[in-house]
């Protein structure tokens, strides 16, 4: 039997590959999908998105620009005072909402398929064990 962390790494690789495949079908990257979800959830300014995603401002700006180019987000300048920093409000477009809805549906389908043979008890046990593992990692990091 393989070591737990080895299997966890293999599962993470499989999960990443599957997510990339799903997002490509909706002309998104995984990061873009997550950004669209954040905007829909109310984090619609760059400052809020930086705080939520923990991304570097320049990285976030490039990702947002790509979503605007793809016509999945619109951008609106807030505040006209020349002495204030530029603030932008991002809003999802109907095209972006369609991509997000499709991706979320496909993600839920993948989740259902992955756990279709698992009992509710097994799924709950997995959640408990993964949460314990996360807590152990957090203790090591701090």
TrEMBL record:
Coiled coil: none annotated. Residues 1-135 form the HTH marR-type domain. This is MarR family transcriptional regulator.
């Amino acid at each position: 039997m393989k070591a737990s962390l080895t299997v966890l790494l293999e599962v993470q690789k499989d999960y990443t590959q599957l997510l990339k495949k799903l997002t490509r079908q909706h002309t998104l990257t995984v990061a873009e999908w997550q950004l669209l979800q954040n905007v829909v959830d109310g984090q619609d300014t760059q400052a809020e998105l930086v705080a939520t995603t923990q991304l570097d401002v320049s990285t976030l700006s490039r990702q947002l620009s790509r979503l605007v180019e793809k016509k999945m987000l619109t951008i609106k300048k807030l505040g006209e005072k020349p002495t204030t920093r530029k603030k932008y409000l991002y809003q999802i477009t109907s095209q972006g909402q369609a991509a997000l809805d499709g991706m979320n549906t496909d993600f839920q389908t993948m989740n259902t398929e992955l756990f279709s043979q698992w009992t509710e008890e097994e799924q709950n046990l997995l959640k408990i064990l993964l949460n314990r593992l996360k807590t152990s990692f957090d203790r090591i990091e701090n």
